[in-house]
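Risk register update: the risk of archive-format incompatibility is retired. Evidence:
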Amino acid sequence: MTRHGIGLFGGSFDPVHDAHLELARRAKKQLSLREVWFVPAWQPPHKSEQVLSPAEDRLAMLELAIEGHKGLAICTIEIDQQEVAYSVQTVDALTHTHLGARFYLLLGEDSLRELPRWREPRRLLQMAPPVVMPRSVDLRRSGAFGEGGRKMSAVMGSSIIWLTGPPVNLSSTDLRASLARGERPKGMNPKVIDYIEKQGLYREHILP
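Archived output:
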């Protein structure tokens, strides 16, 4: 039986921006995936102290952002649980409920560097090989994984699949600050910005 490829892209998406969409589209095209699923977290384990926008707002922004993009979808498995979920648990659950799928884990460069600190990273990558879009430095040439370099090599249960094309440098933190100042920053879907303004999101990020 031929298994169809599905990319899993987890994150808080607070807010979703063009770099998220570009990673998903690039992975779908370059790996000939049937779909890419955005998997918004209820509360990311590595951001346990961060207050996120309400799940319903982050879902609404994702829906607006992917509207009209064929093959991009939202998987609410972690939101539905309403508790901290680890990627290895999510992928394990999806593997057992979607037997015809071959899953891939979509990551940005920053997330790749954090992989050794994730729960059961080797088992995670055995179930879903990592697909990474570099942010700036071409890690394929440098092999630079920061201080976790050696540990990263030991963690990898499968080869990294590097996406080609120019890096897209956008920061959710910077975008939130820009939105708090009443700006309409580049790098975001205008419909998402309209929603943010209507709902009054990110106003708490205004600095004194």
